[in-house]
Specification:
- This is Ribose 1,5-bisphosphate isomerase.
- The protein has two domains: 105 residues, Four Helix Bundle (Hemerythrin (Met), subunit A) (Up-down Bundle), CATH 1.20.120.420; 160 residues, Translation initiation factor eif-2b, domain 2 (Rossmann fold, 3-Layer(aba) Sandwich).
- It is built from eleven helices and ten strands.
- Strand 1, helix 6 and strand 2 form a beta-alpha-beta unit.
- Helix 2 runs antiparallel to helix 3, helix 2 packs antiparallel against helix 5 and helix 3 packs antiparallel against helix 4.
- The strands form two sheets. The chain has a seven-stranded mixed beta sheet, with helices on both faces.
- By secondary structure, the chain is α/β, with parallel strands linked by helices.
Amino acid sequence: MERDIHPAVTDAADDIAEMEIRGAATIADAAAAALGEQAEASEAETPEAFRTEIRTAARELHETRPTAVSLPNALRYVLRGMRGETVSELRASVIEGVVEFRRELDHAQDNLGQIGANRLRDGDTIMTHCHSTDALSCVRHALEDGKEISAIVKETRPRKQGHITAKQLRDWDVPVTLIVDNAARRYLDDTDHVLVGADSIAADGSVINKVGTSGLAVNARERGVPIMVAAQTLKFHPGTMTGHTVEIEMRDEAEILPDDEREEIGDVTVENPAFDVTPPRYVDAIVTERGQFPPESVVTLMRELFGDYHASEPWER
């Protein structure tokens, strides 16, 4: 019989689904931590009951945000390290896996930032879209290297995650110009780099990121502005090596059209995709903790990371 799920898991799942926890690395960290709390609190009496409990918790977390591949990659990391013949051994392996994953996550973003900072020159102006801790790590390290950076920040509707980016940059004393999304093309002539993060990277080098990224990349390429994607390898989607297409999350229509406004407009269909896909031809470099790569090289790195990937997931067994 399946055991009760620990409140830490249900709370994390709710916060991820409602975007109280956002950002791929933050989501992954929260999911791993929740699995660790499930393991620590487990009262399972047999190894099989413990495995079932952990997999059930992982399934609940996995179902929250289908596009952010950092979430299932975090779950894969922890569950594939779960081993032992007793409940005590299984518990210890899960907790150890969580600690290792969170430690690697911290180091990965720092290493990525150092690599990405090398692409930014003193006096550069960057344009950002949405909020990415990986992208901001590149800016932070450039600042620590003594470079002066300014930013044009798209507010990123409908949830205005660009406001979070603007606040962080201002905390670092970076000059910020906040613009509405539709003004991006106008300001690209004042931009040296477009710097964005990613929620998933497909095997062909396609970048799945906050909706609006693709249009920005097309406009930037037409203007001759290089596009740098900052993404830990945690964002690589191993399922795309088997022909899987990344599922695009559809958000609540009320984010776009609240009920009171709907009454005024009338009967219309509302669609609210959270992400879009930027083809690799519009991306100049994907910067990871393992180095910077042209998009067409991603499949080679992905094979090194995930080997002979199979679609069967550890939480489904």
